[in-house]
Amino acid sequence: MLFLLRMFFMGLHFIVAGVLGIVIGLCRPFNPDNSRLCARLYSWPALWLLRLKLKTHTEGLRDHSPSCVIICNHQSNYDLFVLGAVVPKRTVSIGKKSLKWVPFFGQLYWLAGNVLIDRGNALKAKRAMLTTTDTLQHKDTSIWVFPEGTRNLGKGLLPFKKGAFQMAIAAGVPILPVCVSTYSTQMQLNRWNSGDISIRSLPAISTTGMTSEDIPALMEKCHAQMQAGIAELDREIAAAQLGVPKPAPAIS
């Protein structure tokens, strides 16, 4: 019963947030900071409705360099509400062109200045990627990417695709990994408290001097760091749920 009530109110919230977001977009179309404002519109009420406890360690994400490529693990459609709480200033994302036709959300997404790619058309996709390079180099804007390319459904970090790393190297900007604990298989939306989620940003990785030949090693490094970061967050949440205290810091 609680699950059905939550889904009903989440549906209403999705429509209201979409309408408000479109108003913001129409008042200042394609402003890259629209994404952050609209992300908060979706996230804060949703986390309250779902009773998800979110813990963040994202100072590096908040205070990152003016332009970077932010990479994050992608678990489910709930990422919109979970990650919306930490989207930093002047950050846009890359999405499928078909998103533009999703009622309310699609129009908001477009007006927020996000990059829409037609993945079925290689030439148009390449042009869109060139646009992202210009955005990173000259518009004081960062780009948020899910390098897995699809939702992993909480079953572990999938192999990365090259796009995010090609963008970062082409623009000469750092990559900033963001890790989210495994929540999509742990949420219990039929309970009053649905679950705990942790988000942590890792140190930025410079791409200065790199070329396309460095992409495989860069992808492997980022994947390994994020996999370790997610596992650590999962262990911390499991320990907290069992009431295991954190170890005291070493005294030197």
Description:
There is one protein chain. With 252 residues, this protein is α/β, with parallel strands linked by helices. It has a single domain (2-241), classed as Glycerol-3-phosphate (1)-acyltransferase (3-Layer(aba) Sandwich), CATH 3.40.1130. The chain contains eight helices and seven strands. Helix 1 (2-27) runs antiparallel to helix 2. The longest helix is centred in the last third of the chain and has 27 residues, at 215-241. It is globular, with a radius of gyration of 18 Å. The relative contact order is 0.16. The mean pLDDT is 89.
Kindly report the spatial arrangement of strands forming the biggest sheet. 1-7-6-2-5-3-4
- How many whole angstroms does the radius of gyration measure? 18 Å
CATH fold topology: Glycerol-3-phosphate (1)-acyltransferase
Give the end-to-end Cα distance, rounded to a whole number of Å. Answer: 54 Å
Q: How would you sum up the global shape?
A: globular
State which percent range the strand residues make up. 5-15%
Structural class: alpha/beta
Number of domains: 1
Order of helices and strands: HHEHEHEHEHEHEEH
EC number: 2.3.1.51
Organism: Pseudomonas turukhanskensis
Pathway: Phospholipid metabolism; CDP-diacylglycerol biosynthesis; CDP-diacylglycerol from sn-glycerol 3-phosphate: step 2/3; Lipid metabolism
Domain Phospholipid/glycerol acyltransferase: 68-183
